[in-house]
Amino acid sequence: MNKNKRETGSNLRDHQVLGRRDLLATTALFGAGLAVAPLTKAASAQQPRVGGANKMKARKLGQLEVSELGFGCMSISANYGPAADRNQGIKVIRTAYEKGVRFFDTAEVYGPFTNEELVGEALAPFRDKVAIATKFGFDVANSSGGLNSRPEHIKKVVEASLKRLQTDRIDLYYQHRVDPKVPIEDVAGVIKELIQAGKVLHFGLSEASAQTIRRAHAVQPVAAIQSEYSFMERSPEKNGVLKACEELGIGFVPWGPVGMGYLTGQIDALKKFDPKADLRFAMERFSPENLVDNAPIVDVLRTFADKKYATPAQIALAWLLAQKPFIVSIPGTRNLNHLEENMGAINVELTPADIRELEAAFAKIKVHGGRLNEMHRQIIEL
């Protein structure tokens, strides 16, 4: 991540603005679990809170008990530059476990395949003490890399994921993206069979609409929904997904809980994204113009972070923890310092008055740039 201090919007506009970026065209750049940036110091003389005395609490995703903060493993292997050193990745995952994380998120498409292998190796020593979530739904072996949730395909790829993860069951198995060519009832039916066989314990959906969630849930109870949700991205509040989760007793797992790194306050218009390895390169919100125009959102978090002796990232994560008791976000990183920062969010207590103040400030701000990019938007249910 860019270690330069974030400049004010007016100063950033003095820098040369790059042109609109090209769309990415690789299946491997779909996913969740996003890295955060280096630690910042609060405006006061005190250090931000990166540790603390609070112990990790448990939350429920449907009937699946997990830690209140999970860990998104994707960024260790893919989508945020070249893959990290394998030993480094294993160390970060195991350190997350030592700090109380009991919920780890991956997918076959991350790498592809290499992230599942990494997670399997890292968690093998304490496999029975953690919940592993992975995902199906892309035809990764096919050069086109399109969607594929045909029943026969699911039955095939689950075996491969089990092998890579070095386990006999997947705690939470998500459909990564809804396949319009396969009725969701058929998908839910296959997962029901896998649950009966003991190969899968719980069913999840990623980026599904409220209507699809209800249809799937009628066939096989859905434990969790994964979608982008953060202080900056509020789609689940508007499209009925959070409401459906609350009504049906389904957990909600936000990916991108710190705005794909933006809400850490460490990304500015000078940040360069690798067009071949970083999915943010083609996203509207990460154009230099929008990085400048969205700075007031980070300013709100930074101001609150100063009051709480925390960091903007910790405020963003604490805000999610305060939204609903069934929300479990999955911030990810390949860096131990960033992991320490993320875990410190459980020590940041936001009162109802704090939440009202944050919401009042956010209500005055316009978010610039659409969610994801056109190619990605075509395969999510808005």
The CATH class: Alpha Beta
User: Radius of gyration, rounded?
Assistant: 20 Å
CATH fold description: TIM Barrel
Return the string of H and E elements: HEEEHHEHEHEHEHEHHEHHHHHH
CATH superfamily: NADP-dependent oxidoreductase domain
From the 3D coordinates, which CATH architecture would you assign? Alpha-Beta Barrel
Percent strand equals: 5-15%
The total beta strand count reads 9
Strand arrangement, largest sheet? 3-4-5-6-7-8-9
Low-confidence stretches: 1-46
Q: What is the total number of structural domains?
A: 1
Broad structural category: alpha/beta
Total number of helices: 15
Residue-averaged pLDDT, rounded? 88
Distance between the termini: 30 Å
- What's the shape? globular
How would you summarize the topology of this molecule?
Blueprint lengths: L8 H4 L45 E4 L2 E4 L3 E2 L1 H4 L8 H13 L4 E3 L8 H10 L7 E6 L14 H14 L7 E4 L8 H13 L6 E4 L3 H10 L2 E7 L6 H4 L2 H8 L2 E5 L32 H6 L1 H14 L3 H12 L12 H8 L8 H12 L10 H4 L5
Parallel strand pairs: 3-4, 4-5, 5-6, 6-7, 7-8, 8-9
Antiparallel strand pairs: 1-2
Helix pairs in contact: 3-4, 6-7, 7-9, 11-12
Write a short abstract of this structure.
This protein has 382 residues and is of the alpha/beta class. It has helices at 9-12, 74-77, 86-98, 114-123, 151-164, 184-196, 210-219, 235-238, 241-248, 288-293, 295-308, 312-323, 336-343, 352-363, 374-377, and strands at residues 58-61, 64-67, 71-72, 103-105, 131-136, 172-175, 203-206, 222-228, 251-255.
